[in-house]
Known about the structure:
By secondary structure, chain A is of the alpha+beta class. Chain A contains 10 helices and 15 strands. Chain B has one domain. At the A-B interface, strand 9, strand 10 and strand 14 of A face helix 1, helix 2, strand 7 and strand 8 of B.
Amino acid sequence: xxxxxxxxxxxxxxxxxxxxxxxxxxxxxxxxxxxxxxxxxxxxxxxxxxxxxxxxxxxxxxxxxxxxxxxxxxxxxxxxxxxxxxxxxxxxxxxxxxxxxxxxxxxxxxxxxxxxxxxxxxxxxxxxxxxxxxxxxxxxxxxxxxxxxxxxxxxxxxxxxxxxxxxxxxxxxxxxxxxxxxxxxxxxxxxxxxxxxxxxxxxxxxxxxxxxxxxxxxxxxxxxxxxxxxxxxxxxxxxxxxxxxxxxxxxxxxxxxxxxxxxxxxxxxxxxxxxxxxxxxxxxxxxxxxxxxxxxxxxxxxxxxxxxxxxxxxxxxxxxxxxxxxxxxxxxxxxxxxxxxxxxxxxxxxxxxxx
Amino acid sequence: xxxxxxxxxxxxxxxxxxxxxxxxxxxxxxxxxxxxxxxxxxxxxxxxxxxxxxxxxxxxxxxxxxxxxxxxxxxxxxxxxxxxxxxxxxxxxxxxxxxxxxxxxxxxxxxxxxxxxxxxxxxxxxxxxxxxxxxxxxxxxxxxxxxxxxxxxxxxxxxxxxxxxxxxxxxxxxxxxxxxxxxxxxxxxxxxxxxxx
Lengths: 355, 197
């Protein structure tokens, strides 16, 4: 969000109940209507790019790599004319919260900033963000909406066997930048929420995770091909295994003070407030139930203020898996950049995608 | 740019975009070649991630000795295979620096070389996001066999079916000396599991 908007609005915005008639973000009928409006503006070839089969290979094609390294599929937003772009934005606005839409906008702007800093032709470009509809939009049968590019992957599954907000990857490089006279810090809500949490827990030895973190733990996997570009770079490793037991997972939510517990919930909501309320509310209710919180761990490594490479914070519960990591920047390696990932151990891809 | 253009951009990147892969921290690769009596492996370990692992252990021994403490094989029943590190060198892949070790795994007398448990935590014992990607070498494109990530350090590997064997794949590709050649003498060996973490 623009820095002038101030701190962490997305992290403290309460999740709007699904029953609120004034907030329709993410409701399947609203998203379907927006897709229909978009399709009316598209050529046959563009519709073919937008509409893809709801199969594993399509679903897992998201990444944190630039599109020049891991090409995406779908309708390229940079190719749209003004009317089409307006309609595509309508789809995003229907599926996302205001925070989620703002994040999409600002991460795209960050890519344009990188384009000016790093002239290698690897795909830094706000235009290199894509939209796909996997399967046939329906009010009853499973289908997916994907919106993403270099540093963003929204993967929303509607009518799946389980709730479908994840996998949700987001990141930014630069962390903070200026464009057209406006200061931006796209992940300020999430970085502030996670660092507030880590700093509050830093005095508790049980919260400290062992080991070193140079990226998110459950992200994309690159498969090497000697002499060529690697393959993969997508969610090749899905479905994944997650830590079990109570060793080296951090400190239990129940061991925190009420103020620390509030910081933990704020951190959860800073991620969960990105999709539309209809998509995300059931998941937040599940994550913040007393039973789930009783089995939720919070851990950190590196600097709790997230001021150095290797700083890492994680929320790890029966379903929830939220990570935040600080890495060296790539276009300008004297700086840092962020990666963040939200997975659900039970309902990534709405529970509709297997091996 | 449509998806075709994106793929063309990807091809252009083969030579020019390596550093951008720093967006994904480099992983280890173990590329296996199945021989009649043994399994040969090229083990690539990214130096940047290895540095975290050796620093955590305050390890100062030569790389081959370090590798032998963290790399092993055993039969599915738990009998140790002999492990020889025959050579190692420095190499780069998409501008990440790697240590590349040529390793030979030999099953104990009477045991088949067709199935074994690969054990590797050279980096994963410290770097939590690190993944060891296990591939079958020799074909035009290596085949993905599995992956290891903390805390998992063991992967059961089966010899591929004959029609997909490494040797045949190499022959189809015009031969592969690393499969058919005579291996040099080892520079470091271990014949039991006892020293492996």
